[in-house]
Design brief:
Elements (H helix, E strand, L loop, with lengths): L10 E2 L5 E2 L3 H4 L14 E3 L4 H7 L8 E4 L5 E2 L7 E6 L7 H16 L3 E4 L16 E2 L25 H11 L3 E6 L1 H16 L5 E6 L15 H21 L3 E7 L6 H10 L4 E3 L13 H12 L1 E7 L25 H15 L5 E5 L12 H19 L2 E2 L1 E6 L2 E6 H6 L9 H10 L8
Parallel strand pairs: 6-7, 6-9, 9-10, 10-16, 11-13, 11-14, 12-13
Antiparallel strand pairs: 1-15, 2-5, 3-4, 4-17, 7-8, 16-17
The structure holds adenosine-5'-diphosphate (ADP), 1,6-di-O-phosphono-beta-D-fructofuranose and magnesium ion.
Amino acid sequence: MTLELDDLRVRSLGDCRYDSPFAEMLATKRTSPHYVHEDDRVLVDDTVSVLLERGVPIDQLPSLEAAGPRRKVYFDPDATSVGIVTCGGLCPGLNDVIRGIVQELTEHYHVAHIYGFRNGYAGLTRKHRERVVELDLHAVRDINNDGGTILGSSRGDQDPGEMVDTLVELGIDVLFVIGGDGSMRGAMKLTSVIDERGLDIAVIGIPKTIDNDLPYTDQSFGFQTAFAQATEFIASVFVESQAAENGVGIVKLMGRHSGFIACYAALSNNDADFVLIPEVPFVLDGPDGVLRRVEDHVRRHGQVVLVVAEGAGQELLEQEGQTTDASGNTKLGDIGLYLKEKITEHLTEVDLPPTVRYLDPSYAIRSVAANAYDSVYCVRLAHAAVHAGMAGRTETVVVRWRRRFVHIPMALITGHRNQVDPDGDLWMSVIEATGQPATFGA
Ligand SMILES: Nc1ncnc2c1ncn2[C@@H]1O[C@H](COP(=O)(O)OP(=O)(O)O)[C@@H](O)[C@H]1O
Ligand SMILES: O=P(O)(O)OC[C@H]1O[C@](O)(COP(=O)(O)O)[C@@H](O)[C@@H]1O
Ligand SMILES: [Mg+2]
């Protein structure tokens, strides 16, 4: 990591001049094991060797601004209007975040207006301006019991100039963008137009991804719910594969570039014998290839279960030209079906005609309501986002980093992707739990 302290400083619109509703509560607070003072910072690194390697004084070590309420805020709460938008793929907990933002802004800051934009960035365009909804406590009362997002979502590019026009027309001071890497890139285009026009509008990101592929954040919200859902499907194919002769269970799970869902779901119920993820390439043929390993497993145990992340082994698939979705994300080939075909073919050839159960739970793992753990996480992120916005932070994302809520510059979260490290301890745990080899063939 070549990060310097200056790369981690977040932008502010200006000095905070208004009293915060939390001023009294904060008056006596100091940093403790359970609280980081607003003037204190959280270290990025957590190992002695890395800190020593940096070779700089402690106050020059890479660190992050603590999230949370401030004694003074930038926006005059009574005169403030905010907007909320949810973009990209669904994720458990979106409604919890929306609800948390609305409750915090209403009950503590008493802001003037809270607007919800419908269906992602499309909702900020001229064409959809009339679909904007005003949000209050009543509108968000029990939305956390449902999956999805009450605001809707979408993929696809929109003109940032037109979107900023909408913010100006509605008098929005703070825009909360709940979205993934694409949404944060879109949010940065908004801040650049806002800067060009000299406007006083803050843009705060709340990172969303069930793939858990955003960097500088501990597991992202909704991830735990999603992989817990996924375990149910693994358990089903396990039962099915046990009951059949030469039973083969295959579950394909979401994870475009990162195999976190596959790893965690597999570790959770420990029924998987093989986990295939995008980060660890594999070959099918040859003595150490997947097919021979699967065959060996079936010979020894009479059945086998494979968990495969959708982005795994894409290089094995013959695809006619690469296509992308409306947001520019690469469309993937179906590795699950390909494995099903290849395994069936191979086991039939070696006289172990299989019964294959293939499940692709797809949207069933991301469209559900958040579990209790994720709901807590969501509401705390929502609070942090509101405090950041009211304090005039902009182009800033609120994240939980090593269990502390902090602010990071938006550019960092789009800079690279969080992936399972084949040399890291998570993959080691997967190998330990499944008993699969560290690699498959040359
Ligand atoms: N480079 C970009 N510049 C501007 N907007 C972008 C960019 N990438 C994605 N977006 C927009 O952000 C929204 C969400 O992006 P998408 O990739 O679908 O989901 P996610 O935010 O979950 O990664 C879409 O409306 C998309 O057009
Ligand atoms: O069918 P859709 O909506 O494009 O979603 C599929 C993709 O969405 C994901 O859940 C990720 O979504 P985001 O890019 O919005 O984070 C992937 O796991 C999956 O490949
Ligand atoms: Mg994305």
